[in-house]
Amino acid sequence: MAHTPELPDRYVCTDCHAVYAGSVTHDDGLYHYSAPDECAACGSASFVPFDQYVNHEVA
Ligand SMILES: [Zn+2]
User: Fold this and answer.
1) How far is the CA of 45 from the centre of ligand 1 (A)?
2) Ligand 1 center–CA 37 separation, angstroms
3) Stretch 10-37: mean pLDDT, rounded?
4) Average pLDDT in the 5-27 region?
5) What is the C-alpha to C-alpha distance for residues 29 and 51, in angstroms, rounded to an integer?
6) Are the C-beta atoms of residues 6 and 31 closer than 8 Å to each other?
7) What is the 58 CA–ligand 1 centroid distance (Å)?
8) pLDDT band for position 6 (cuts 50, 70, 90)
9) How far apart are CA 49 and CA 59, in angstroms?
10) Bridge partner residues of 56 (DSSP)
11) How far is the CA of 49 from the centre of ligand 1 (A)?
């Protein structure tokens, strides 16, 4: 079995760079994380996973 991290994913708004924890749903014994529907700060619906955001900023 693959190891599955239990920390929730985080997502970054591509417009204002606010960071959100992923929304969690529990289905069939598995946890699923997804980005918010829209940014509470600026209303954007564009998010990137935090890891990709960090890699992008560093590169
Ligand atoms: Zn935003």
Assistant:
1) 8
2) 11
3) 88
4) 84
5) 25
6) yes
7) 20
8) low
9) 16
10) none
11) 14
- Of the pLDDT bands very low, low, confident and very high (cuts 50, 70, 90), residue 3 is low
Span from the CA of 48 to the centroid of ligand 1 (angstroms): 11
Q: Is the pLDDT of residue 1 over 60?
A: no
Task: Report the 10 Å Cβ neighbour count for 26.
Answer: 8
Q: Which two tokens stand for residue 51?
A: 């890891």
Q: What's the CA-to-centroid distance between 19 and ligand 1, angstroms?
A: 9
Distance 2 CA to ligand 1 centre (A): 34
0.70 surpassed by pTM: no
Phi, psi (deg, nearest 5) at residue 52? -65, -35
**Residue 41: which region, alpha, beta or left (left: phi > 0; alpha: psi -120 to 50)?**
alpha
